[in-house]
Amino acid sequence: MRAIFAARWSFQRTLVTRIIPDPWALPPCPSTFPAYEPKPFFRFEIIHRSRRSSARIGRLHTPHGTVETPAFVAVGTNAALKMVDQRRADEAGLELLFCNTYHLLLQPGPEIVTQAGGLHRFMQRSRPIMTDSGGFQVFSLAHGSVFDELNMKTRKRGSPNLLLAVSENGPVFRSYRDGRKIELTPEKSVQAQKMLGADIIIPLDELPPYHIDRDALYQSVLLSHRWEARSLREHLHDMRQQAMYAVIHGGIDLELRRKSVEYLTALPFDGIAIGGSLGKDREELLALLAFLDTLLPKDRPVHLLGIADEESIRRAVPYGIDTFDSCYPTRAGRHGTLLTRQHGRIQIKSRKWERVFEPVDTTCEGFVSQNHTLAYLHHLWRAHEPLAAALLTLHNIKYMCDVMREIRTRILADEL
């Protein structure tokens, strides 16, 4: 008889049915997996280790080119950077792009992307791509982000709960596009990512809320481990020149994080991603990274999921983080914020910039700074011209790539 229990995310006041035969079941023993072997198509090369911290300069060698690390990874949710053409992003220095399997699973579907020759051909991108499992969107669309939880934000009255159930097989949810019911198993997630053809893929995991009791969190970590082990087995059956990163879980519980690191690093994953709830603020995040820095292997790349604002990057790099993904810099551009060295953050709608006939940033050699003035961008924004959001977004991508180049220079000089 299967044990059936319900977990209520208190801040959302929604019921998610969990059907787990044994919530305390251990994942398969690492000895049942082959030993890790370096791949000819994927390699992490460490160029320099800082003498002051765990910061390092590296190179990710992938089938679609090299990524200089530490690196900012922009998010192209639907196989597109909102408002920015791929070629312009390439010129700005963007080397690695993050696409979301959940959204691509619903539209256009992995089968169509496969018929197009994979994501790279479909979106005409020659540089590396990373995809997630779809799990983050399934769970975050159901119970919100940590920010939503801490600020007591709930779904609008009458809006559907997209997450229907969680079983040992995987989550069951409704498509936000057409309402159809979908079961996302670890195997289906990996198969979808095989069809998309990204260079780096992620195993299926569960995203529990920030406020959760320890037993429930531990059960979630064990479930994620079982799903990740199944994802890895599916991946190893047919690697297709793709690397797979494990996702470390445990919330801000250090002992659970330790258990997660110990188990997942014993499996033949090509890299490590730090996921789950990363704390209620930057200080909790950094305390967690400081703890993980002593545990994570030093020869595999480490990716921080969903965090890539400038201050967090600068403070996280000394803990050995190599890549950071976030939609923040591009979203900020679409909402009228320019990131600059010369003026700090600029709200372009402000009348302050109406008659400033100077480049956006005289220290920047990007397309926007070289060709447009603050007064012109202010005019475009006030006139509601779509070009304004496009130019602001492109500039912010260039800004983040320049920040990462500066960070790599400082690591090389042992300043970080």
From TrEMBL:
Keyword annotations from UniProtKB, A to Z: Glycosyltransferase, Metal-binding, Transferase, tRNA processing
GO BP, sorted A to Z: tRNA modification
GO terms assigned for molecular function: metal ion binding; tRNA-guanosine(34) queuine transglycosylase activity
Signal peptide, first to last residue: none
Pfam families: TGT (PF01702)
Residue ranges of every copy of the tRNA-guanine(15) transglycosylase-like domain listed in the record: 54-416
Keyword Glycosyltransferase carried by entry: yes
Gene3D superfamilies the UniProt entry points to: Queuine tRNA-ribosyltransferase-like (3.20.20.105)
InterPro entries: TGT (IPR004803), TGT-like_sf (IPR036511), tRNA_ribo_trans-like (IPR002616)
Record PANTHER family: PTHR43468, TRNA-GUANOSINE(34) QUEUINE TRANSGLYCOSYLASE
Name of the protein: Queuine tRNA ribosyltransferase
Organism per entry: Cyanidioschyzon merolae (strain NIES-3377 / 10D) (Unicellular red alga)
